[in-house]
Design a protein that fits this description.
Pfam families: Amino_oxidase (PF01593). The protein is α/β, with parallel strands linked by helices. Helices cover about 35% and strands about 20% of the residues. The protein is globular, with a radius of gyration of 22 Å.
């Protein structure tokens, strides 16, 4: 089933899409393919949203997303237009998928060989190999049912769930429990629990606030594989932009939107450079709260300022982009460094926000796979530490935290970067707020808590302004590049079905 098999109702209409992240790019493609006249306005100098690229002295960094997961979603997206991903970029399956260092000196490589991974689990806990099989069997079932009937099919109203087919499909799925309790049913060893839970970072949550439904991410991880698109995630952006241009989408960069006026059939979208764009409909892939609080008059908002203040947000991040002389042999393309007890780190994100003093973090070294991202004889490396949104973010704090991270990498991966760094840039809370208008500087948006999942996320269709729509990570299905691609289809479908 294609997410948007037949989009009607928009042919011949003019649509302005605000924001060139994956949600905006996806929506623009679907609408242009359906015959709409689409103009996409992007605030920054390049398209891709959080998937921007940083190029400095021969180093090219993916500034945001760096994991290519759920290849079936990309195939389905391009397939809607009669195309395929390999027309735009090549994929390489990583081996290992990633390496994990624990801060007690232990380490493990997660491999593209399921049986080898099973043996790893068994080595930590007798019977864990069998539990690994059972967990992945449930994870696969959750993924297949969840994707087809709860992700690709939007259910924005409560009555959409009071349906015999929904009840039949959802029978046995872990819809209400928390991930921590769910994983504990299978594994006692805390390191095995962490291996099944680390993907929650991609959803902006913790084991104690993310629904157990997201055990489906383990199927993504262990069964579907981890890939690298040649040229990085930026190459995926380039591919979608190329597709969009072939469909007739017009792109305007350096066009920060300052206001939205009007309603269906008579919208005016103003930009900072003084341009005004007229349209029949408007779609915002900009931050949802920013769109409502800053771009619309108070009478046209669905939510109050207090609503946005009361939400649980996914972490922000401290990012350190490093060009390093020489190799980093102990690190893989993807490397995770975890405390043996990571509850303290999550508590410093969600419970008592402060800069983590014993952080869990992620290291990416794409130069292990792609020799075009760094000059010869050098390594391209970035470190990402999840931190609480809204933290104070000053040069002094960044310098102190930079030193903490560099020291921690040396201590726990035996990789001393000091004295070898030739390029260095940081990006953190204030940058997310400034560059992406992200609420509280969150790196991802609304977290996937029980009260912020599915129909409890803000809708695609504004109920305050006829002809205004939303796409991207704050809407359904949620956070992550694949989810934002799907969100674009759901938004286009909502526009086709809207009786404006």
């Amino acid at each position: 089933m294609d997410v948007v098999p037949h989009i009607g109702g928009v042919a011949g209409e003019s649509v302005v899409v605000i924001g060139g992240g994956f949600g905006g790019l996806s929506t623009a493609c679907y609408l242009a393919d359906a015959g709409a006249d689409v103009t996409l306005l992007e605030k920054n100098e390049q398209l891709g949203g959080r998937a921007s690229r940083l190029e400095v002295d021969g180093f090219r960094f993916d500034m945001g997303p760096s994991w290519y997961l759920m290849p079936d979603v990309f195939e389905r997206f391009f397939g809607h237009f009669g195309r395929s991903p390999d027309e735009f970029y090549e994929l390489e399956r990583l081996d290992p998928h990633y390496r994990v260092f624990w801060k007690d000196g232990d380490k493990v490589d997660v491999l593209p060989d399921r049986e080898a991974n099973r043996e790893i689990f068994e080595s930590y806990e007798p019977g864990a190999g069998e539990a690994f099989d059972a967990y992945l069997e449930e994870s696969q079932r959750t993924y297949e049912i969840g994707m087809e009937h709860f992700v690709y099919e939007d259910r924005p109203r409560l009555r959409d769930y009071v349906d015999k087919d929904v009840l039949r499909y959802s029978w046995g799925l872990s819809l209400l429990g928390k991930m921590q309790g769910h994983v504990e049913e299978y594994f006692d060893h805390p390191k095995l629990q962490q291996l099944m839970q680390y993907t929650l970072v991609f959803l902006g949550g913790s084991p104690t606030n993310t629904p157990a439904l997201y055990n489906l991410m383990s199927h993504v991880d262990y069964n579907m594989g981890v890939y690298y698109p040649e040229g990085g995630i930026g190459a995926v952006v380039d591919g979608i932009v190329e597709l969009a241009e072939a469909l007739g989408v017009e792109f305007v960069t350096d066009a920060e939107v300052t206001g939205i006026e009007g309603r269906y059939g008579a919208f005016a979208v103003d930009t900072e450079n003084g341009e005004r764009y007229l349209a029949d409909r408007v779609v915002s892939d900009a931050d949802y709260a920013h769109t409502e609080q800053e771009l619309l008059p108070e009478s046209k908002r669905q939510y109050t300022e207090e609503y946005w203040e009361s939400r649980t947000y996914a972490p922000s991040a401290f990012l350190l982009y490093l060009g390093v002389e020489g190799d980093v042999p102990n690190l893989e393309h993807h490397t995770l460094v975890l405390p043996t007890d990571w509850e303290g780190h999550f508590a410093q994100i969600f419970d008592d926000p402060e800069w983590p003093d014993d952080p869990a973090y992620y290291l990416c070294v794409p130069s292990k796979t792609d020799d075009t991202v760094a000059p010869e004889g050098h390594s391209n490396l970035f470190a990402l530490v999840p931190v609480a949104p809204g933290l104070a973010d000053t040069p002094e704090i960044r310098n102190r935290y930079r030193d903490l991270v560099i020291d921690d990498i040396a201590a726990n991966t035996d990789t001393d970067l000091r004295g070898r760094i030739v390029v260095e840039e940081t990006f953190s809370v204030d940058d997310f707020a400034d560059r992406y208008n992200s609420y509280a500087g969150s790196a991802l948006g609304l977290a996937h808590t029980l009260t912020q999942t599915s129909l409890l996320r803000p809708p695609h269709t504004s109920d305050a302004v006829d002809g205004l729509y939303f796409t991207g990570s704050t809407t359904t299905p949620g956070i992550g590049v694949p989810m934002c691609l799907i969100s674009g289809g759901l938004t286009a479908e909502a526009m086709a079905d809207d009786d404006v």
